Amino acid sequence: MKPLTVMAQPLGRPSPAVRRTLVLAAVAALSMGLAVAEIPSANATADAPGTTLGAAAARSGRYFGTAINASKLGDPAYTTIAGREFDMVTPENEMKLDATEPRQGQFVFTAADRIVDWAAENGKRVRGHTLVWHSGQPQWLQSLSGSALRQAMVDHINGVMGHYKGRIYAWDVVDEAFADGTGGRRNSNFQRTGDDWIEVAFRVARAADPDARLCYNDYNIENWTWAKTQSVYSMVMDFKQRGVPIDCVGFQSHFNSGNPYDAGFRTTLQKFAALGVDVQITELDIQGAPAATYAAVVGDCLAVPRCAGITVWGVRDPDSWRSSDTPLLFDGNGDKKAAYTAVLDTLNAAVPSPSPSPSPSPSSSPVQSPAGSCAATLSAGAKWPDRYNLGVTVTGSDDWVVTMTLPYPEKIIATWNVSATWNPARNVLTARPNGHGNSWGVTIKHHGNRTWPTVSCRAA
Ligand code: 9MR
After folding, report:
1. Whose CA is closest to atom 8 on ligand 1?
2. Is 410 considered catalytic here?
3. Closest ligand 1 atom number to CA of residue 314
4. Which H, E and C letters describe 330-371, residue by residue?
5. Which of 85, 94, 176, 283 is an active site residue?
6. Which candidate, 299, 375, 289, places its Cα nearest to that of 324?
7. H or E element in which residue 416 lies
8. Which of 106, 123, 198, 212 measures 20 to 30 Å from 368, CA to CA?
9. Which amino acid residue places its CA nearest to atom 3 of ligand 1?
10. In what order do the strands lie in the sheet with 6-7?
C-alpha cells in the first residue's frame, strides 16, 4: 500500500505546493518499493495527448506494459526505452517455475527481484508471470505426480506469492492449461493430478496475496470461433458461478500467420468481460508489426471498459523471442517503428466518456455505510472535466477507519485532512483521522466513470 499525501485544502488544479507534496509522496512511496503510477498523474490534464505509451494509455485509465528481461537491465539503451515508455512490466522468464524453485523448497528470487525492484524504482507496476505452467518446469517437479505434485504446486504458489506479497498488480496463476485445436485440457503433469488443479491454484493464490488480481493466461484464445477460446470461456463462467476466485483473463496475443489477428478479437474481449473479469492483452507481438493491426488490437482493448491494459512481449525487435519476425514497436536501433506511432495515436484518440453517469445528489441519496459505531457520508464537491472531489463526514466516533472502494477505472489522486493509504491493486483507500477532525475529502480521477465509491466505517 502506498501513502497518500495529506493536504490542507481541497484541490483545484494542484498548486505548486501541492505538486511538491505529490512528488514527495511519490518519492516516499518509491523508497518503500511501491508503485506510484497514479500520483504524478495529478499533474496531467485530461486532454493532453500522451507522449509515451504509458501516458497515452493512462488517459483512459489503462496501462501499457512490456516484458522485461533481467539480463538486459544493465543496457542503458534498453532501460531508457523501457523506463520512458511503459508503466507495467512482466518478467519474461524470471518468475517461472524453473527460475524461482530450481530445487524443491529452495526459492531463488535474484533475477525476478531485479525486475521488481527496477519497476518500483521507476514507478511501474508488475504483472507476475507465471505460477503454474506445463512448461519451464525444473527436473524435480517433472518427476512428481499425484498428491506430491499437487502439494508441490500449492507450496510453490505460496512461496512465490508470499515473497512478492503486496508488490504484484496481477498474477498469471495458471498459464496455457488448454490444448490447441480441440479445446480440451492440455495433457500435462498438473492436469493428471485431477481436473480441479486449476481452481485449487486460484484458491491458494487468493489466500497467498488477497491484493493481487488473479489471471488465467493463454494463447490462441483471441479468436472467438476457436474451440480453445470457447473452452476457456466455459471455465471462467464456471469459476464465476461457483465463486472460484478469478479476476482476469490474459490474452497473450502472439499474432502471426498461424494465429492471425481477426477482428472478432473485440467480441472475445467483450464476451469474457461480460463474465465479470478484467481482460488484459498480456504478450502482444505481431509478425512484421503491421501498424494497422497494432492499431486494431489497441482499438479492441479501448472498446472494452474492462480491458485493463496491454503488454507487448519485449522492447525492441532483437529482444523478442521471435526476433526474426520483427514483431515489436522499436527496432534494433531503439527507433520507434510505424506501429509505435499507430499505437500511440490510437491510445490518444481514446477520450474518457463525455457523458458519464451522473453522480447521485448528496441531499437525495447520501452514501452511508454504518458499521460498528460510526458512519461515513459522502457529499459532492468541485468537478473538473477529468476529476471530481468528494467530501467525507464521519459521525459516531472520533477514532475511525474508513474504507473507500472505487469502481474501476477511477483512481484517488489526492486527499485532504486525513491520513490515508492507497492500495492500487484493489482500488481501495484506507483513511484514518490525522488531527483535522472528522470532515475530509478526496479527489478522484474518473477516467470516464463517475460512479461514486462505496464507503464503510469502523471505530478504531
Ligand atoms: O519469451 C519467452 C522466452 O524467452 C522463453 O525462452 C520461453 C520459454 O520459457 O518463454 C517465452 O515466453 C512465453 C511466455 O512465458 C508464455 N507464453 C508464450 C511466450 C512465448 O513463448
Report:
1. 136
2. no
3. 1
4. ECCCCCECHHHHHHHHHHHHCCCCCCCCCCCCCCCCCCECCE
5. 283
6. 289
7. strand 411-416
8. 212
9. 321
10. 6-7, 411-416, 439-445, 387-395, 375-383
- Output the CA 92–ligand 1 centroid distance in Å: 7
The 10s digit of each residue's pLDDT in 335-387 is: 999 999 999 999 999 865 333 333 333 333 334 444 458 899 999 888 877 78
**Distance (Å, rounded) from C-alpha 229 to C-alpha 342?**
27
Residue closest to 78 by CA, chosen among 33, 86, 324:
86
pTM of the model: 0.74
Q: What angle do CA 356, 357, 358 make, to 5 degrees?
A: 110
Q: How far apart are CA 86 and CA 440, in angstroms?
A: 34
CB 215 within 8 A of CB 169: no
Task: For cell 492500487, name the residue.
Answer: 424
Distances (CA, A) of 84 to 22, 56, 88, 316: 20, 12, 11, 13
For residue 324, the SS3 value is helix
Q: How far is the CA of 338 from the centre of ligand 1 (A)?
A: 25
Q: Atom 1, ligand 1: which residue's CA is nearest?
A: 321
Q: What pLDDT, in 10s, does the model give residues 207-242? A: 999 999 999 999 999 999 999 999 999 999 999 999
Residue 161 Cα to ligand 1 middle (Å):
20
Give ligand 1 pocket residues (Cβ under 6 A).
92-93, 96, 136, 175, 219, 252, 283, 321
